[in-house]
From TrEMBL:
Domain Glutaredoxin: 16-80
Organism: Bradyrhizobium frederickii
Protein name: Glutaredoxin
Binding locations of [2Fe-2S] cluster: C29
InterPro entries for this protein: Glutaredoxin (IPR002109), GRX_PICOT-like (IPR033658), Monothiol_GRX (IPR014434), Monothiol_GRX-rel (IPR004480), Thioredoxin-like_sf (IPR036249)
Keywords, comma-separated and alphabetical: 2Fe-2S, Iron, Iron-sulfur, Metal-binding, Redox-active center
Family: Belongs to the glutaredoxin family. Monothiol subfamily.
Sample GO molecular function, one term: 2 iron, 2 sulfur cluster binding
Keyword Metal-binding belongs to the record: yes
Entry-linked Pfam families: Glutaredoxin
CDD domains xref list: GRX_PICOT_like
Entry-linked NCBIfam families: Grx4 family monothiol glutaredoxin
PROSITE patterns (UniProt xref): GLUTAREDOXIN_2 (PS51354)
């Protein structure tokens, strides 16, 4: 399986996926940490993938999305954005709306 196939499989088989530096329990950059805090605050279940474990994954996700930075959030197979976009959507209530429109269960 190529890295692009691995990424595609992860994005399509999980409702919410965060490609990040570190893990949800131990983010290793401030931007990844902010997105984790937002997702945890909303109460949405998600899969975190640590791009620091693999240069192939770190470069592959940038090519997959055609987006230069990490973290990257995907909802139901759709690229949502990085830290700034996720934060702005959260503050405007748009992230919560997107999740509910896509049928993703949120606890909050």
């Amino acid at each position: 399986m190529s890295i692009a196939e691995f990424i595609d499989n992860e994005v399509k088989s999980n409702d919410v996926v965060l490609f990040m530096k570190g893990t949800p329990q131990f983010p290793q950059c401030g931007f990844s940490g902010q997105v984790v805090q937002i997702l945890d605050h909303i109460g949405v279940g998600y899969k975190g993938l640590n791009v620091l474990e693999s240069a192939e994954l770190r470069n592959g996700i940038k090519e997959y999305s055609n987006w230069p930075t990490i973290p990257q959030l995907y909802v139901k197979g759709e690229f949502v954005g990085g830290c700034d976009i996720v934060r702005e959507m959260f503050q405007a209530g748009e992230l919560q709306q997107l999740l509910s429109e896509k049928g993703v269960v949120v606890a909050a």
